[in-house]
Amino acid sequence: MKPRVCVLKTDGTNCDQETMHAFQLAGADPQLVLINQLRAQKDLLKQFQILAIPGGFSYGDDIASGKILAVELMQFLYDQLHEFVAQGKLIIGICNGFQVLVRAQLLPQLHTGNQEATLLDNNSGKFECRWSSLKVEPTQCVFTKDLTEEIMLPVAHAEGKFFAQQDMLDELESQGLVVFRYAQDGQQTDCYPYNPNGSVHNIAGICDTTGRILGMMPHPERFIYAYQHPQKLEPLGLKLFKNAVYSMK
Question: 187-198, pLDDT tens digit by residue?
């Protein structure tokens, strides 16, 4: 049976169709679900094995990127989300979805009741849309199993600078929760444009301690065919979705 994927959509989401297509190619059964459907049907989320929060500009990123959708999740779906996680299911937040997961306190750590990290305006002061080289760290993350040490994925964001206080950064590093770092020639780098936003510790993506919740700024759903890259590289973005699907079969 194909794992069912809830691809969450609200006003301003614009990467939902690409995310659905990526999961379809990976062998899943994705369904587009509006946030109001989850609010109205309290048992709807239970029908899925994977929750995907795609990129875009949810609610226009008013107040802060992903903030309003994060508040909705915390206010109306807190219990369902925590039950979803407790059952060993998967969550991925891409770009705006990463911002939502952090502001909804699903990352870096669950159950703390505090927002312990954030995504700030890019150091460049502008929207960054470019291919980025990423160093894949050895972690327990389900989505990156057997990935090569370096991959290329596109970024497209204005608020992608990962930031946390030093004690949280130390915890992320010591527990091996940093999944992706911006890199140059296989080595992490602070240099612009290789680090397109100025993220501390060059962090491009993190997971929780179970490895089953992933948040990342780059867009794997935009590199699932070789022709999408100017050099026609192997489309390793698809591998993340295949790993997720395989783990839930």
Answer: 888 899 999 999
The fraction of the chain above a pLDDT of 90, given in percent, is 91
pLDDT tens, 115-126? Answer: 889 999 999 999
Instruction: For 175-233, give the secondary structure using H, E and C.
Output: CCCEEEEEEECCEECCCCCCCCCCCHHHEEEEECCCCCEEEECCCHHHCCCHHHCCCCC
Separation of alpha carbons 112 and 82, rounded Å? 12
In the chain, the number of structural domains is 1
Tell me which H or E stretch contains 129.
strand 128-136
pTM assigned to the model: 0.96
Catalytic residue among 18, 72, 128, 221: 221
CATH (domain of 192): 3.40.50.880
Catalytic residue, from 6, 95, 141, 207: name it. Answer: 95
- Residue 173 catalytic? no
171 a catalytic residue: no
Q: What residue type is 92 in one-letter code?
A: I
Q: Is 201 a catalytic residue?
A: no
* Domain span holding position 116: 4-247
**What is the torsional sign of CA 78, 159, 141, 1?**
positive
pLDDT digits (tens, 9 = 90+) for 97-117: 999 999 999 999 876 677 889
